[in-house]
# Entry
Amino acid sequence: MAYVYGTDEWEKAYLAEVERRKTTESKPYIVATPEWTAEFESLVQQDGDYREFAKEWEGSVALQINAEPEAGLDEDIYILMDLWHGDCRSIRIVPRAAAEKADYQITGDYAKWKSVLAKELDVVKAIMQGKLRLRGDLPTIVRNVKAATRLVDLAGMVEGRFPDEMPPEEKESFRAWVNEMRKQFGV
# Structure
């Protein structure tokens, strides 16, 4: 059954999938999966430093990870963070149309995002250098650099495996699961 993003039905089914995968998948979770984003969401929601740094922040942020077929990502993945005055209301993998409605969208190649999570690449510097593309108001991002940096720090704290580092059979299983998620959730 295909769910429609933005409905209570979609949200309920998505959260059920997160819980199902938390019981069937072992840690460390694969980066940019619903169970990994749920761990990220929990860290952000519990982090006092983030709340303090982001108390003036208003707006949703979408992260677009460009397709990388060799890593098992045949299509782009979109992660939407619903952030408001230090509160993280949710972090979800969403359909492209939902990500495009975000107040800010940061787009980059898989390898760049991997470098960001490994703390080899500073997200704000990467935006300013054109290594990541920003749609939205750069001065607002710069004014909230501590909040942006803290989000990246927290994402880096979520133990994760990268698809390009998986053995071929696991990568194919991941690819099949992603395709099923796209059918069910439109992501």
Summary: The beta strands are 29-30, 58-65, 77-84, 87-93, 104-108, 133-135, 160-161.
